[in-house]
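## tool: complex_structure
## caller: assistant
## args:
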Amino acid sequence: MTMKRRWIPFAALAVLMLLLASFQVTEGSHAVVTRFGKPVRVVENAGLHFKLPSPIDSVVPIDMRMHLLDPEPGNYLTQDKKNLLVDSFLVWAVDDPLQFYKAVSSRGGAEARLSEVLRSVVGDVLSSYDFADILTIEGEQSGLARIAVDLQAAAAERVQANRMGLRIASFQVKRLNFPDQNKRAVFNRMEQDRQTISAGFRAEGKEEYDKIKAQTDREEAELLADARRRAAEIIGTANAEANRIYNDAYTADPELYQFLRQLEAAEQSFAGNDNLIVLPADHPLLQALGTLPAPAAEGGD
Amino acid sequence: MRWIRRAIAVGAVLALLSTSTWTVAQDETGLVHRFGKVVRTVGPGFHLSLPWPMERIEKLKTAVSRSMPVGFTYMEQLGAENMDPTRREWLTGDTNIVKMEVTLNYTITDPVQYLYGMSNLANGLSRDLVLRRIAEAAMTESIAVMGVDEVLSTGKTQLRNEVMSRVQAQAVASQLGITLTSFNLTEVAPPPEVQNAFNEVTSAKSYREQQLSEAKGARFTALPFARAEADRIVQQAETERTEILSRAQGWAKAFHALSESMQQNRALGMQRMWLQSIEDILGRARVTVLPRVPAGKSERFYLPTK
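## result:
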């Protein structure tokens, strides 16, 4: 019994030492091992690792994942002094765990300093772009793509200079807007633009209508004029033909023709009923009625 | 004392089992961690692992399609959060403001990267919200080179494609471990402040269309009428031509016949015709004969009136 129980304290001590001398590094992390507070090495692989037992060596886990820093938007001036509400964010990660541990040690500390960097970098970069570089319908690409590159480069430079042991994975403008006090003016301008467009559409409608109407009227008039011209031609040709026929008649028998024309003219002149004809008593017509024949005197044949 | 030992032994076995058996559900993926390191992933089903503290399995819903609202929040929709109009506002290339709401759908395609590529947000919110930031940046950039009319009408497909590819590229760069499945423009509209002016454009446009179709309609009916009228004029002329010619021909025929018939005794024929005419004229007229007035005298006569 006594022999059997003697190993228990040794086993307990061994387990305790094992606990004090081992540590886990989780996926997505590195660990800085410090000896009496002084960093001595970085463990990069996740899993189970060993060290001198606490309190000689201790372990500081460093989160190597990407972090999003998304502060409140701010008002910035462009190069041409236009006021813009710019909302940007950056994605950062620890690059050099040892450096990071020495310089800032925690995510909170890093983000406090990165927030300052972000604000001044956005200000700097924005002030080197004109408003029209950012918002444009001229080109294929917005200046925002270049701005993102500039932001990242400028931030990386600051971070490098400050030896913070981290890198900037992405730095972009996520929102642009006009400050509230300018927005009314923007809405007014939008309204005016729309009114101009509306007026344009209405004028165009009127113009189209008039154009088609005028064309219709012209075509209509042309059709009728053409028809009248053709009608006149037809009748003219017919008259010429008729004249030729009359001429032929005249040539064939001028005397009869003239006589008939005369009669016709007379009949035309006295066309209709109830003409009043006044004749002097000695008119040949009346003479045609003749005198009473005197059969007695001349009936001698 | 024996029963205490037994109880400890049974407890130990139970603890061993409970930390080494796992069930991964149908829509989940299990990540097996050994001392914090991911050593393998397992699919749905029953799995064994080494007991605590050596191994554990972390389960992640990977078969579920997730959605991320951009330009609005679900809390707003539920009324649990105040509406923020500026959240919906985007600047166009012609410095207009448009209202836009988008929903992105995505799934976790790389569970290890999803968990260990990007941390959760500093304020404790899910890493998924990074997707919204990325999408906002992509939309801001795409819309910044489009005109307001393009955004509101023809540019939606382009916007959609651009934003989709940018967001996917950024999601990879930011190690989100997700894949975008769809991009839905749930709302695109002018801001409420200027909605009326935009409506007026629409009605002006339809006024233009209406004028156009009205004019075309009038033309459509006017021209056939004009053609019919033109045709009538020509037809009438043709009729007249026939009349003129047949009159002339008829007359000529009669004339030649007459001329022929009068070859023999012309004077007599002419006289007869003349008398016939006179007879005809006088027969239809009222004839008044004035008495002979001797030369050098004047007389006044009263003509009978009707």
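## assistant note: Chain B touches chain A through 114 residues (CB under 8 Å). Chain B is about 50% helix and 20% strand. Handing back to user.
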